[in-house]
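Lecture 7 notes: from sequence to structure.
We start with the chain below.
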Amino acid sequence: MLSISIAGAAAENASGTLQIGEKRFTLRHAFAAVEQDGAIAVFLSDLPVLDDLRKASDDWRYWARKQAQAGALHGVIVTIDPATSVWSGGQLLTSRGFMFYSETVSSPEMASLRFVPAGPLGDQVAGKVSMTAPMSDLQDEDGRWRVKAEFRSNVVRRPASSAVLTGPEAGNSPQYQAVLAFLNACQKKDLDAIRNSMSPESRETLAEMIAGSQEETLTMFAGMAAETANLKLSRVTVRGDSAEIEFVDPQRGPEPRQTLGVALSSGEWKLAQ
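Predicted structure tokens for the same chain:
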């Protein structure tokens, strides 16, 4: 049975509000974890993350989405670049699950999403987030939303790498082959094959997406697979029962252009993104 850790809850806190349409929610809890690409995801909510889920994986996201859909949780994920302290996107949780949001501006002065750090971003992240203007829901069902909060949290990091594979070793790895199975299924718009190539948690997300529009979802997946086909496999980083597969664009330098995650599920590697 999952439980809430009193010690874990005491190590993080938030104080602020999330306004969605005419509804306002008080944010009291913060949880921070390092993403696959190195960014820090800060989850501000009115319900603490369960102790069993306080780790750098996607499990806490799946839990939060289900809680939000049930109306038991309200919150927002703030994604921060630790190198620049820039907050440029994340996800808002609503009764429909995750709503992705992002902002691209030519200069920091033009940004609506504001993050003011309180100290360096390392083992801890702390500061204030605010918005100069409310943001619209892409489907405009919940109304415009806005967050203003101050928070502090320890940063949960991913397990140390147990192997870093490059060249032929990466290309022949079971982790990369699992990604290829997913991408090939996407290119063919083969829903059964896509589903079979994904972890159980990812299948839940897929089910929600195709419930909205199966054809649009398959077209989006096919487009993503086509874009990835133009990239080059860079390396496979294995972290026990999970791994990250990085792709680069040879024309744009060595920095990863896309990272896909896989995880062991019943002894087989499956997409876990």
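Points to note: The helical segments are 6-10, 59-69, 167-171, 174-188, 191-196, 200-229. The chain has two domains: 6-156, 163-271.
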